[in-house]
Design goal:
Elements (H helix, E strand, L loop, with lengths): L15 H23 L8 H17 L23 E3 L8 E3 L2 H15 L7 E7 L2 E8 L2 E7 L5 E3 L2 H4 L16 E10 L1 H13 L8 H9 L4 H5 L3 E11 L7 H11 L8 E3 L2 H14 L7 E8 L2 H7 L1 E2 L2 E2 L2 E5 L3 E14 L5 E12 L2 E7 L3 H7 L6 E6 L6 E5 L24 E2 L8 E2 L6 H12 L11 H10 L5 H4 L2 H4 L15 H12 L3 E3 H7 L7 H11 L2 H10 L6 H8 L5 H12 L1 H12 L3 E3 L15 E5 L7 H10 L3 E3 L8 E4 L5 H9 L2 E4 H8 L3
Parallel strand pairs: 2-13, 21-22, 23-24, 23-25, 25-26
Antiparallel strand pairs: 1-6, 3-9, 3-10, 4-5, 4-7, 7-8, 10-13, 11-12, 14-15, 14-17, 15-16, 17-18, 19-20
Helix pairs in contact: 1-2, 12-13, 17-18, 19-20
Length: 699
């Protein structure tokens, strides 16, 4: 029997090193799936598989809170906006929801809220159907629609105003005296019957039908030509809000009714529930009603009814504390595994992919699934030719849940994971303790080189339009682009060292002009995006921003990494003092900047005219504790520790778990321990609970 993988080892059985490695792998894997789902409407794993990855991440973070990464999936939502639309910054973030999958988890949500607010009775909640559509925010000023934006990455979305104006369900002018400014948030979706009619028309025209209503709605809303959107049967439910110039009502339930009075359709049936038993009964009822609803749903949502309690609860990472989605079980089917193929990523990771006999699951035809890694294949004993059980939840390709051993064909043999890279023929090795096998070919492996270049020009990095996977691969094969700096020399090498791009099939002067203009527009780039573009192991967007905010310039960052090579040095201590940077991540950073090839890449980019801008810190909320590091110790009496921490973070402070010379304030409650003495030894300012409350109430 194969050794158990880290992925299947209980979180409380992991060592800190194992936990750190798995958190890094989970961050990269979940970010990949976020981009596929939110930017391309082309997910490759099921909702259930995706949710399992996030739950695994949360379990490990709960066991090892000190290892929580700054690019952790629990800190992010969605993915960056797609190209082709103007980007819009949300005045208030559009966050996603935490998930519950079992009755016990839904009950635990109510208990957490009750503990956080120190309530004697469970809070009343509003329960609503969870619509499976595309999130959208509509901004109204003086009652008129002035802006519509998709969620994007939660902080920045796509301006789809003209397309949204074509949706009949969206009021262009609000009724009944709305606030001067109101952002109504909800879901763009398609009615099931209208979706079937749309697909019938698609087929009559000889065009490809849409896979499901969610994909159809997303694709229709993202049309660059609003006339195409106008021809699609889109609808909109408005059930939430962002920025407001005046409060709508004291409760979620009353606020929903106000939105209805303004002219919005609501996701019904909704219900106010006073007990855990009531919300679970609602869940069961909606699950029965699900097939008869005119729109697709994938669960229900519970929201604390009182809005003042919502404000006190606030947010944690990427989701509000006052709401949760209770998801429906995944759908399953059975099919044959025809082949296992191997994909090679930019870090050399070999990822197995199941090629399936096409099968319809819940109205969607699926034919591929990611198998994650070789241990997953061995653990389930998955073999080519097997009948396999697959499951999907939502609108995506499924995961392989299990094989059906009694239907296994005679003569089948266990799958042997390749130890040779299928692209370049280099050895593929698996470091001790890791779950991923990697190609050792490095830049001689075209798959890795091409994937690294794709990452470099991707939306969250240099964001160069016109350099998609196909073009990058063609330029690589021609020798036109072999490294990042070659991209910024394309214009000078065009027609000199290589045939003119204008002469390529399907190209022309206009295409080349647009590509060069896109490249020129990216010669100046922020430090955080540049660091992310380098593709440093374990360094995602959030960590890149953290490094940029700390070091402020590329030269200071590189000097810091050079100094940190000495164990115990001040530079190493400085690096490890940054919240979210652990030893494993520090090792990868130091190794990257120590490698001569990587330093040459940076030097070549600068020589090619790329200017890395110093980091410009965002404007933080003006408060006495903005930018300060705060530590709490002892028992607080007027609020719970959780609420005090949430309030501090909302005011721009960083809450740490231990006292150091960099701590600004130690808030001392009853029964304070050794932290108080350490603070006195270090000269850290200590505050009583009342002094703390006076300080933060001054904002």
């Amino acid at each position: 029997m194969a050794e158990p993988t880290l992925r299947n080892t209980p979180a409380d059985s992991l060592t800190p090193d194992e936990a750190a490695r798995e958190l890094a792998a989970l961050a990269a894997e979940i970010a990949h799936h976020d981009r596929l789902y939110h930017q391309h409407d082309a997910p490759e794993i099921s909702d259930a598989a995706y949710d399992a990855l996030r739950r695994r991440n949360e379990e490990i973070e709960a066991r090892f809170p000190e290892l929580r990464r700054t690019d952790s999936p629990s800190m992010t939502v969605g993915a960056s906006p797609a190209a082709g639309f103007r980007k819009v910054a949300h005045r208030m973030p559009m966050l996603s929801l935490g998930n519950a999958f079992a009755r016990e988890e839904a009950a635990e949500f109510i208990e957490r809220v009750q503990r956080f607010l120190n309530l004697k009775e469970p809070p009343c909640c509003v329960a609503e159907p969870k619509v499976d559509g595309l999130s959208c925010s509509l901004r109204y000023e003086d009652g008129l629609l002035v802006l519509a934006a998709t969620r994007g990455d939660g902080a920045e979305g796509e301006d789809v105003t003209e397309n949204v104006r074509t949706i009949a369900d969206v009021p262009k002018r609000l009724k009944d005296s709305p606030p001067g400014v109101i952002e109504v948030r909800g879901e763009v979706y398609m009615d099931r019957t209208e979706f079937l009619d749309l697909n019938r028309r698609q087929q009559e025209r000889g065009e490809r039908p849409f896979a499901n209503p969610r994909n159809a709605a997303a694709g229709s809303l993202r049309q660059l030509d609003p006339r195409i959107t106008a021809g699609r049967p889109l609808r909109f439910f408005g059930y939430a809000w962002g920025e407001l110039s005046a409060q709508l009502a004291p409760t979620q339930w009353e606020a929903r009714q106000r939105l209805k009075e303004f002219g919005f359709a609501l996701n019904e049936p909704a219900e106010r529930c006073d007990t855990v038993e009531a919300i679970l009964a609602y869940y069961e009822r909606i699950q029965v009603l699900r097939p008869s609803l005119s729109f697709d749903i994938d669960g229900v949502v519970y929201k604390v009814d009182r809005l003042d309690w919502q404000e006190r609860l606030g947010f944690v990472s990427r989701a509000p504390r006052w709401a949760i989605a209770h998801k429906f079980p995944a759908e399953r089917a059975q099919t044959r595994l025809r082949e296992i193929t191997i994909q090679v990523g930019r870090t050399g990771a070999l990822t197995p992919v199941a090629e399936l006999e096409p099968v319809t699951v819940g109205g969607v035809v699926v034919s591929r699934a990611t198998l994650h890694n070789e241990d997953e294949i061995q653990r389930k004993d998955i073999r080519v030719g097997d009948q396999v059980v697959i499951q999907r939840a939502g609108d995506v390709i499924p995961q392989v849940v299990a094989v059906v051993p009694e239907l296994r064909p005679e003569g089948s043999v266990p799958y042997v994971f390749p130890h040779i890279c299928p692209v370049c023929g280099s050895d593929a090795v698996r470091p001790e303790g890791e779950v991923v096998r990697r190609c050792t070919g490095g830049l001689i492996c075209s798959a890795q080189a091409v994937e690294r270049l794709r990452h470099f020009v991707s939306r969250d990095a240099f964001d160069i339009e016109g350099l998609g996977e196909k073009i990058i691969r063609e330029f690589w094969n021609e020798g036109r682009v072999r490294g990042p700096s070659d991209i910024f020399r394309l214009q000078e090498t065009n027609g000199r060292d290589f045939p003119r791009l204008e002469e390529r099939e399907g190209w022309g002067a206009r295409s080349v002009e647009k590509l060069f203009a896109s490249i020129e527009a990216r010669r100046r780039i922020g430090l955080d995006r540049f660091v992310f573009a380098l593709g440093i192991p374990q360094i995602g967007q959030a960590t890149a921003r953290l490094l940029a905010r700390h070091y402020l310039s590329l030269d200071r960052l590189m000097d810091g990494m050079e100094g940190a090579r000495t164990i115990g040095s001040e530079a190493m201590g400085e690096l490890l003092s940054i919240g979210g940077i652990g030893q494993s991540m520090a090792d990868d950073l130091i190794a990257f900047f120590h490698e001569e090839h990587n330093r040459k890449v940076i030097a070549d980019l600068r020589e090619a005219g790329v200017e890395v801008l110093d980091y410009d810190p965002p404007r933080v909320q003006a408060s006495p504790i903005a930018g300060k590091t705060v530590v709490f110790t002892g028992t607080l009496e007027s609020v719970t520790r959780s609420e005090a921490k949430a309030r501090a973070e909302a005011l721009g402070a960083k809450v740490a778990g231990s006292v150091s010379a960099k701590t600004d304030y130690l808030v001392v409650g009853a029964d304070a321990g050794s932290k108080a003495q350490k603070a006195r030894d270090l000269g850290v300012t200590t505050l009583t609970e009342q002094e703390w409350l006076d300080l933060v109430s001054a904002t």
